[in-house]
Amino acid sequence: MKQTFVQDIGQQLQSAVLSSGLTTKLICLFCIIGYALSFSPQYVQVLAVIPGRVMPPNFWIWTFLTHSFIELHIWHTIIDIIVVFLYSKMIEPLWGTNELLRFYFIVTIPNAIVATCIYFIFYGLTFHEEYLFERPIYGLAAFLGAFSVVIKQLMPDTVLATTPLFKLKQDQVPLLMVVLSVILWFLRAVPVHFLIMFSSGILISWIYLRFFQPHQNGTIGDTSTTFTFASFFPSPISPIVSVFANTIFEICVKWKLCKSFGKKYNVASSSSITIIIPGPEAADADRRKQKAIKALNDRMKQKEITNENWPELDESHQSSLHAQDHPAQNSSVSIDKTNSNELISTISKDDSNQNFFDTSEQQQQLQSTS
């Protein structure tokens, strides 16, 4: 009996909940508590980021930590919980609990600071005090954007959907979701801080994963060509974005904001040279190689099918080949020794083209055996 799509999603979510760690369950529990507290405007003012109150004399800096647990709509809370559980199921076995939690706060806390600075810029341009006191910053929009970047890192070039006009790949999902967020903002379906936090969450998570994330093998960041900033954009405009991104990267290297990518050579052994390129863990690399291995296996299967469809030889030709092989199979060589008891050795030939020669070494061995 075939399962429905809803049942399949339910089973995946149940598996994610059961396999998740305590940290993930606590984050989801805080999201549920935050949604329950959002019915009180006083709690929203205290837990969400209010740009005018994070500055002196109020200095409510704890809101940079608590704002991610506040949601005003139930469907936002449900999406946040689902994404957190799926993120835990995919990432925690590879990164570990500590790295998972660190990535969560690296994305959410700086993102709130960036959104606060943008609200200050809006206030400086418009002098509307609503950007300082009447527009709270809350939710996990930044983490949703970061999750799309992590999926892109693990499964680059994965085709999600195929249409007659185009193919939707995993590389295009972050940019597509940004465009969708802009459309929802124009339709007044999401507030402006959702668009800001989602976009900056993509950028912050990519910067961390690309340049600063430590790995257990001693490497830092991910230098793979499938994770460049230009790879987030469609192929017609990716070369232009690549030139712009490389220029920014060179400036950051000169200012020592990040390190240039390099290679390590291990020449301790004279017989071989080991080259270590900084990048993600071996488990991440194996995920990327699975597609190539699968494509190679498919090609090999197709080749075997074509070999099976080759025409067979004629029966007359096959009988002539058997006739030629028959005497070769029955041929033998006998060696007589006069100085010892009579010894006859029969050697069968497996191949008609193989020749046997009596050398001095063979005769000595035969004498010793006799």
TrEMBL record:
Biased composition (Polar residues): 318-361
Annotated compartments: Membrane
Alphabetically ordered keywords of this record: Membrane, Transmembrane, Transmembrane helix
Stretches with biased composition (Basic and acidic residues): 297-306
Organism per entry: Rotaria magnacalcarata
Transmembrane segments: 21-39, 59-88, 100-125, 137-155, 176-209, 229-253
Chief location of this protein within or outside the cell: membrane
UniProt membrane topology term: Multi-pass membrane protein
Descriptive protein name: Rhomboid protein
Source species taxonomy: Eukaryota, Metazoa, Spiralia, Gnathifera, Rotifera
Region called Disordered, residue ranges: 297-370
Pfam annotation, one family: DUF1751
Any Gene Ontology CC annotation: Golgi apparatus
